[in-house]
Amino acid sequence: AQSVTQLDSHVSVSEGTPVLLRCNYSSSYSPSLFWYVQHPNKGLQLLLKYTSAATLVKGINGFEAEFKKSETSFHLTKPSAHMSDAAEYFCVVSETGANNLFFGTGTRLTVIP
Amino acid sequence: DVKVTQSSRYLVKRTGEKVFLECVQDMDHENMFWYRQDPGLGLRLIYFSYDVKMKEKGDIPEGYSVSREKKERFSLILESASTNQTSMYLCASSFRGRGHAFFGQGTRLTVV
Asked: For B43, which DSSP code?
């Protein structure tokens, strides 16, 4: 069975400070892991994905995530928050080669000027 | 660029009405999905289709049906809309076995 736990429903950071959004997953098989971002009243956009290549994955807009199998984690980070990063972020797991996606409940990121 | 287009951004329907939500993708994807998004619950899968005329129930199929007569189009049908179906509905598509899905802009449905 596969599942995703996003450890924080809401994270608030000041502009220019680092961002950390935490995600733990459970998967019986070799997982593919994704982070999606959703800006208000918009669809979901892929930020980055891990599919069993390098464990440190770089995405768009300066975000990156590290796959840690021993900790079953896939935390999303960014060195310096920008106002435009304010959005909802979803961690997603899929069995590699499978079709369905399993979503976390989301983390709302607020960036304070 | 991949495009997943949902026919409406906002819809208001009355209780008991039959409601059609349409989704079209232009990338020849085999898989198409309908999700429902509610605050604090994330995205929940309603139905999934992996080929024309093929469908599988997701986590919350009750009160919904789907139709996929052509590869590029996937319709979600609310047979008799109820107020607890007020929600944001998101369509997505992907290549078979590739995981990474592309999403439409969403349809915010209000049932009154």
From this structure: E
